[in-house]
Design goal:
alpha/beta; Rossmann fold; 2 domains; eight-stranded mixed beta sheet; 37% helix
């Protein structure tokens, strides 16, 4: 089965953030691999519309999707496909995949046969809904989340009375081939210190951000062998925290040096020894089962991932290629284990990507489940 899928999301708002763009490309390229015609729609408000349009056009051209995107501009104009063309694409599509409910245009949403909400930042929207702060799920026919443990007894992400379809994030394996061993490579990651959302107080607990977790592991590099580097988006006002990380042995560099282009971002991940993934407190404390789309790219490249545990050990085989930690001592032990036998962990990492995150499998299964839901 194949037809047309329209994906709505936010790429134009983040020029120079190639990792963010790659998250959407995994779906666009992945569905296209399965034989589907794809189209991407975006909108930009207060951000720089000129830079945003240029960035989106470059991303779509790189992906071979010229003529398959549209950007809503201030004042109601559109770049790329015009409004009438977008409406035609949506009406002709089997489904509209609305990432985090970013598309809010009532006419565009109303034109879709099947409106699917894709939750890629789990916990925040659900808790906002439960607290009566916001409802970003309304107006959709099906709801998909990457919180793979939602509904489990120890997962505190509320279901909000919705029938959630769970899925891991996909990686297009052909786009992320195995890289040769990285000589003198560092354990790396690309991250934001705070991100777009603030902490959420819910049911007597404060669910924090990555900043609150990274502080707990500031001393990891000093206690483990090897090099550790973060391409970290951190505001100058957080200079004390930056110094805390540097004092602990982390090498910091601006993401603009490694993630300005799609190819540059990919080269940075593939040139690393592996990833140390510290998650947002929301994902960790809620036991959501969240796993980063960036981490799937490391795995596909044959780069092992040392991931803070969000409930992953109950979802995926850990110990080879993918190791998890909850404490500083566990993180140190994991880093030493990965450096003791990098070749074995590299093979296991790719095998995990092929078995659990291959876009062909992940998206094919998601389409089957959406078909059943529809």
């Amino acid at each position: 089965m194949s037809g047309r899928i329209v994906i709505a999301g936010a790429v134009a708002q983040k020029p120079g953030c190639a990792g963010h763009a790659w998250q959407f490309l995994q779906y666009l390229l992945g569905f296209r691999r399965l034989g589907w015609d794809v189209c991407f729609i975006d909108q930009i408000g207060g951000a720089d519309p000129v830079a945003g349009e240029r960035h989106l056009a470059e991303v779509m051209a790189w992906a071979g999707l010229n003529g398959a995107w549209s950007l809503g501009l201030p004042g109601g104009e559109r770049a790329g496909l015009g409004r009438a063309q977008v409406l035609e694409r949506i009406r002709d599509a089997d489904l509209l995949l609305n990432v985090m409910g970013f598309e809010t245009d009532a006419e565009l949403l109303g034109a879709a046969r099947l409106r699917v909400f894709l939750d890629t930042d789990p916990g925040f929207g659900q808790m906002w809904h439960a607290l009566g702060l916001a409802d970003i799920f309304a107006g959709h026919d099906a709801h998909v989340t990457i919180a793979e443990r939602i509904g489990a007894p120890d997962c505190t992400v509320p279901t909000c009375g919705l029938d959630w379809i769970t899925t891991p994030q996909p990686v297009v394996l052909d786009a992320w081939p195995v890289a040769p061993p990285a000589r003198d490579g560092a354990f790396t990651s690309v991250a934001s210190w705070r991100g777009s959302y603030g902490p959420v107080d819910f049911d007597g607990h404060r669910y924090g951000l990555r900043v609150h977790q990274l502080r707990r592991f500031a001393e990891l590099p000093a206690a483990a062998s090897g090099r550790f580097e973060l391409a970290l988006d951190i505001h100058p006002a957080d200079a004390a925290d930056a110094e805390l990380l540097r004092a602990g042995g982390w090498q910091l560099r601006p993401p603009s040096e490694v993630a300005a282009t799609l190819d540059g971002y990919r080269d940075y991940l593939r040139g690393s020894a592996g990833e140390v993934m510290v998650a947002k407190g929301m994902y960790v404390d809620s036991r959501s089962g969240w796993f980063s789309e960036r981490s799937t790219c490391y795995l596909a490249s044959g780069r092992a991932v040392l991931a803070q545990d969000t409930g992953l050990a109950e979802r995926y085989p850990v110990g080879e290629g993918l190791l998890v930690f909850s404490t500083l001592a566990e993180a140190i032990a994991g880093a030493e284990e990965l450096q003791a036998d990098p070749a074995r962990h590299a093979v296991a990492a790719r095998a995990l990507a092929e078995e659990h995150f291959d876009s062909d499998r992940v998206l094919g299964r998601l389409l089957d489940r959406l078909g059943a839901a529809a």
